[in-house]
């Protein structure tokens, strides 16, 4: 397709032909085993992507030394026993003509003792609070020489395991990065201080790996273009360093940003514009001759094509984009853009990874479960009635229909989307709509009979007599009946506010400071309304996830319209006032023209209860938030499973 | 009528498969030699004029090294009547002005009524030989041609040219005239095998610069007005990159990036006040602004 | 006074405004004039523009040459060449620049030939080192070549708009001196006669090039509503475009997408219907001269970008406006 000319053009790194400019970038999955071996789950997942034409796949950061292991189930090439399982993976990728790349990493000061069992090592004894605050041991010169040998040995294993290229992970505060940066390197010997001295460690590692692999094996470097910490590296510093390595024969550079102290700049959330890091890739490319791989919120082939067309980079790392939809490239080629299950950068995958859990995906329940979740046609075609067109309802409907069932979907509102309808309101949350948008398209494309604006009753369902009934009735805002004044006209709820069904005032009290409350408060602020957010917990945004907190909480703090009060409850509500209570102290807030409950969600279960009591239709099931309100990842998964069980 | 087409065999870089970034990743096999696509479109346009007016004689001239011969034979096979090869090995050393000077020295006094050139060569992307040739021959020139009507009996030629924004313009001129033709306006014919074999046997009219010296003109690189001092990798198109500003703190740089790569800040509302509703007043105001922006109503003309 | 280090620009105007990318061209001209330590001169041919000196002053233009003649509103190659050739030869600036649009691409080679000056087309960058270095893309974009020109006189170049700096507010306070030029046009011999101009069909024109654009956003609602916009667009001769959500939902093809992930438009007028105004979208409308935004949300960010903002239900308003304009047309041009 002419629209994606640049993206589909083959490229060359050294003598290696890469069939197109897309690359699935390195993304830790926690799918290895305890020894760092590649598992079948990992191979299945990667094959699914390779099958769909991705040009190269860079495996996740792979530790070269147990002392520098970053995660419990991370891949490793620290021992010769790792080679066999990595070889199975590269063989599988090569079968589809995909270039296999490994990224060698030593986490340095970012390693956590509880994962490694060792004290971390680093250029200087400065702990990293984000990964647990373990005090690192300052490396001796002997340690450094040993580390060099370990890098070379891991590179040899990478070659023996069949990897076509080797990237040295010199970003994100890991050991190479920390030696380069004056922020983390305070040494006074030949490895610290002057520019030349700070270059020394990285240069020695590069040369050791080059000597091991020879001149014909492509070696790249992943760099943090800007550390985004005061006193840290900036683009000027990092591109000078890469220029220096280029002079020594480096073959490509992979441009990322941030270190653990600025983790929100490593893996960008939906608060960032798509292609957020491209100006940095372009800045790097300005001074270099070697190919530049760009990364950072490249969730859309259109942005990728544009970046290539503008010469901002030579290859595009699309990590989460391929995670969310393995077929993104093939669908783009066919022009089926609306059929792409797009990554919306909710960062659930990363939160799981940082929480030492196996990585999954909100919008793609099959990620990492390719074998288990493969769609099989239904043995017996049944009529399926789904009540509720939210994420769970749409997921079950489309999956059941794709398996051959006859599915009707009833939604009481005039549009599909459920909770996403309100959750995607506000300028930093629009991307949430992608989760609904794809499912709406898929539901229609799968031949589901969709009824909008029809609220089902028990009698309706009994009249329809479906073989299977799925109730995905979702939630409604929780309005505590015991708060005096809850029926006053100034009282509203998050859904009404976000959907524009309530006139926005000038001074609001928002009850609830977790995700929903903050979404509501920011929306009100955007519309020029001052608001006081209260929450009975002692922290706001606890359910946001680590990286999201690093983005959202400072923004709330900086927002002049928003005041936050913790450990505070609402006691009673008047016509233009509300009484709140904090640790036993009451206070009346005057001059309020809106009270918005964003306290939590109430499950809508009455239809399920009635069906159970009635007993005529036995084959029914309640799924999604209506069972218990959870994160979208769980709700979509539940829908995906239910669709496969019918 | 005598038509001349100036044809270039381009040396086009169709891939970059070399392993050395310092050599711009160019391997020797990355160049292909081919007839420049918009020149081929010009030949096709001329052949179509000849189809309507069989008395037309189509000549081709090509300035280039030995490799230009392949293209010239192909042009013969397509249906050109005469082909002329100005043999010059170091065309890379000539700029557009010097190249046009050589072609002008050859073409003058040959009485071509119509000279066609391609829009631009896809290797040098200059688009200057055509207009310079017209200037040196002191004949009118029309650019961006997408359609040529066969000349009428009075020698008047009507052409259509492409403007910006998809608009078109019709221009009338009289012979002699030079037209630069866009590519993609026609599908150049593919000669059959028999025609190719026959063209292979024809003798080409090959001449050197020495055969052209006229009125003391110094042909060759001496006529250059510009020179290439280096080749490099293309740079990124510009975007505001405020976050590189080292004066900014890390937090400020991070904030800029979050907002989308240093995009310009939204300008303050230009309108004094927002209008509301859909009253007659609002409609009139809209109509006024539409009119001020030069909107013409289609129904008025149809 | 005019000097040998001056930079000259050819500006273009349309419908009483400076054409698209004029700001980028002036910014680039000013940068080069500063580097050469010369003045910046702009030339405009055709009808005058309101408060032109004020605008030019903000971009640091020192001098304006203007010939006020309605017949110059439409470009004629031979008349422009004769007129500008005379001016340039008289004042001998160091650089003479224009945009690499249709006009510049046709005119500049003629001018270069007429005054015997070197020219580099479609430049992505011009730098002033020991000599002036012109960089442009060659091999259809695979490489770039850097040129120098021989001789020390005027150098000509056209600039690729895609490499011009992004728009930002101009802050200079140069006083622009106006010089009216009065060349007797009737005496210029012409051999070409332009007999007609045809407007592009908005339905098929590339959205980037469309003169009038009706852009649809989420606020337009269901697919069934699109027909009304198609009708409206046809009435005013506009091309239809959309924001990413509208394209993603498959209502319009990807080629019609406006914004960061789509195309940047440079229309004279854009009517933004039900668009919220996220930055992804507004990046694509930087170059639009006049923007009308219609949205039911009074606080929609799009109003910050609009020349006229209307708070109304967009479907109703467009329906009413279509009827109103049609009636006006029937009334015989009340509009």
Features:
heterotrimer; B: alpha/beta; 2 domains; nine-stranded mixed beta sheet; two-stranded antiparallel ribbon; 13 strands; 27% helix; globular; disordered C terminus; C: 335 residues; alpha/beta; Rossmann fold; 17 strands; 26% helix
If you had to describe this structure to a student in words, what would you say it looks like?
The complex is a heterotrimer of chains A (646), B (302) and C (335). In chain A, α4 runs parallel beside α6 and α7 packs across α8 (278-287). Chain A is 33% helix and 18% strand. Chain A has 21 helices and 27 strands. Chain A has three domains: 2-336, TIM Barrel (Alpha-Beta Barrel), CATH 3.20.20; 383-476 and 604-645, Rossmann fold (3-Layer(aba) Sandwich), CATH 3.40.50.720; 491-599, FAD/NAD(P)-binding domain (3-Layer(bba) Sandwich). Chain A is α/β, with parallel strands linked by helices. Chain B has 302 residues and is of the alpha/beta class. Chain B folds into two domains: 2-223, 3-Layer(aba) Sandwich (Rossmann fold); 235-265, no CATH class. In chain B, 27% of the residues lie in helices and 25% in strands. Chain B has eight helices and 13 strands. Chain B has helices at residues 37-52, 68-78, 96-107, 129-137, 193-201, 250-258, 280-292, 298-301; strands at 2-7, 9-13, 31-35, 57-64, 82-87, 114-118, 141-148, 156-162, 168-174, 177-181, 205-207, 226-232, 275-276. Chain B is globular. Chain B starts with a strand and ends with a helix. Residues 261-271 and 298-302 of chain B have low confidence and may be disordered. With 335 residues, chain C is of the alpha/beta class. In chain C, 26% of the residues lie in helices and 26% in strands. In chain C, strands 9-8-7-10-6-1-4-5-11 form a nine-stranded mixed sheet, with helices on both faces. Chain C is globular and about 65 Å long. At the B-C interface, α4, β7, β9, β12 and β13 of B face α4, β7, β8, β9 and β12 of C. β13 of chain B pairs parallel with β17 of chain C.
Concise synopsis of the structure shown:
The complex is a heterotrimer of chains A (646), B (302) and C (335). Chain A is of the alpha/beta class and 646 residues long. The mean pLDDT of chain A is 93.
